[in-house]
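My current task is to audit a protein record that another person submitted. Thanks in advance; the entry in question is below:
***
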Amino acid sequence: MQILLTNDDGIYAPGLAAMEDELRKIGDVTVVAPAIEQSGVGHSITFLSPLMAKEVFDGERRRGWAVEGSPADCVKLGIGEFCPRRPDLLVSGINGGFNVGINVLYSGTVAGATEGALFGIPSIAVSLEYDERAKFDRAAQLAVLLIEQILQQPDVDQHPLYNMNIPTSALDNPTEVRVVPMATARWPADFDERVDPKGRRYYWAMGTPPTALSGEMTDLEAVEQGYVTLTPLRIDRTEPEMLERTLQWKLSLEPVAK
């Protein structure tokens, strides 16, 4: 099995190395990752300037291809240039920090998986709850265990994009997997206003997390309860019900009668 591995934390991130080591037990891995951290870049791509890429090594260890671009750039280059054959699987991660709820809209990790899914490749974003001493090796073991099960499903090719989140508590304590929808609770617009030595205002985003809503179990509630979560994500953002209603509006470019 040919596997393309990327991330948004950069080519030297420990989560990437841990995932590579574990994925090599089930297939041939090609690593194509950003040269520097690209957290929060979403699904941006580079097209107004050339993409610089080079193979990087850590002593005798070959890290992979480092790309001066986004995770989506890395996936495009990996598929088009660096993989010896079309990948059978794309993994993005392990990200240091959850990507639950509307974080999937901002996440470079999820964007890397989304780009793979656009090519019809089963693609999985993997994130681990932030911890200064994160156990990425153990998280990679759990992630690959689940990835192997996902690939065995008869209908996996019918839906290629998944988002996996692993709480820190799941690394040492028995827990379960929950297949859940993504939460839609927004991040609060909280900023710390400051003034620099020249009297200019600037703002630091507070990073106040969204509050889990009562009712339906989503990825946000599930990780708070210690479950490993898996969420199938949609590439087509069309809202089918509203599309049908909008068709009834009989919109026109003729002047509106008053």
